[in-house]
Amino acid sequence: MAAELEVSAEHQLVLVTGPSGAGRSTAINALEDLGFEVIDNLPLSLVPRLTDGPPIGRPIGLGIDVRNRDFNATSLIELIDQLTRDPRVSLEVIYLDCSVSELIRRYSQTRRRHPLAPMETPAEGIDREIDLLAPIRVRADHLIDTSEMSPHELKAEIGLRFDRNDSARMAVSVQSFSYKRGLPRGLDMVFDCRFLANPYWQVELRDKNGRDPEVSAYIQTDPVFADFFQKLQDLLFLLLPAQSNEGKAHLAIGFGCTGGQHRSVAVAEKLGNVLAEAGWPVSKRHRELERKAAVTPDQASR
User: Fold this and answer.
1) Where in the chain is the domain with CATH 3.40.50.300?
2) Separation CA 16–CA 31 (nearest Å)
3) pLDDT tens for residues 57-104?
4) CA proximity to 209, closest of 194, 199, 222
5) Most CB within 10 Å of its CB: which of 7, 76, 89, 190?
C-alpha cells in the first residue's frame, strides 16, 4: 500500500536510512524524481532547522546513514522521536535492509572501503553497521529488503509507495520474469506464458529474445496465441479503468515463462505497446534480460 503522509502537517519528511550499500542513493534519487526536495548527508544537528522556517510546499526526502558527519544511532533515534512528537511534522522512516552476503558481494564488486572498516574487510564493517542500526530498523515505517532488487526494482518500489500525484493517470508496469527465479515483488496480476510455443527449441531463435521480431512472430504462430491475447486485452481494458477509479496509482502486471527470455518478454512487449497506444503510461521491465550479463551460457534459461 502506498504511503500517506499527513496532508495537514506543515512539513512532510521522509527519512531514508539503512546499511551502506543497501540502495540509499537509488531511493533518494527516486524520491527526487517524484518531486521531493532531497537533501543527502545533512548533519543530524541541522535537521530540526528544516522545520523552523515556513513550509516549502513539497515533501522533503532526507538521506542519512553512518557517513553523516555527526552520525550516531542514539542521536538519530532522538531525532526521530523529536520529529514524531512535533504536530507540525509528518515523518516517515524508510529502512533499506539487505542481507550480509549481498552487501559483501556489492562491496566486492565496487571495491570500495566500508566507512566503519576503512582498514579492514568490508564484512567487519557491515557487521558493525547492522548492529549499530538495529534500534533504528525496528522504528522504521517502511522496511524494504533490497537483497534481490535491482536499482530499477527499488526505484519502482519507492514510486509505488510514495507517488502522490493524484492528478496523473494510473501508471502501468508490464514485466517479464523467469519462474525459476521466482515472482518479482509487487505484482498485482500474473499470467503464465509457459503454454505457448517455446522458441528455445528452435536453434536459430535460441540465442535471441522476445524483443526480436523473429521470436515474437514465432510465438504468435501458436494456434492459441490470438485468442489468448485478445482475451487478455479485453480483461485489462475492463480492469484498468476500474482500478484507476478506485484511486490506484500504479498497477504491475507480470508475465512468466521458464527462463524469462522469450515468451514472457514477447507478450509483455506486445501488451505494453497496446496499452501505450490506448493512452496508459506504461513502463516495461524484463528482469532476466537485465541480469543476463551476469549469467553464464550454461545457466541460460530456456
Assistant:
1) 11-162
2) 10
3) 889 999 988 876 677 788 888 888 888 888 888 888 999 999 888 988
4) 199
5) 76
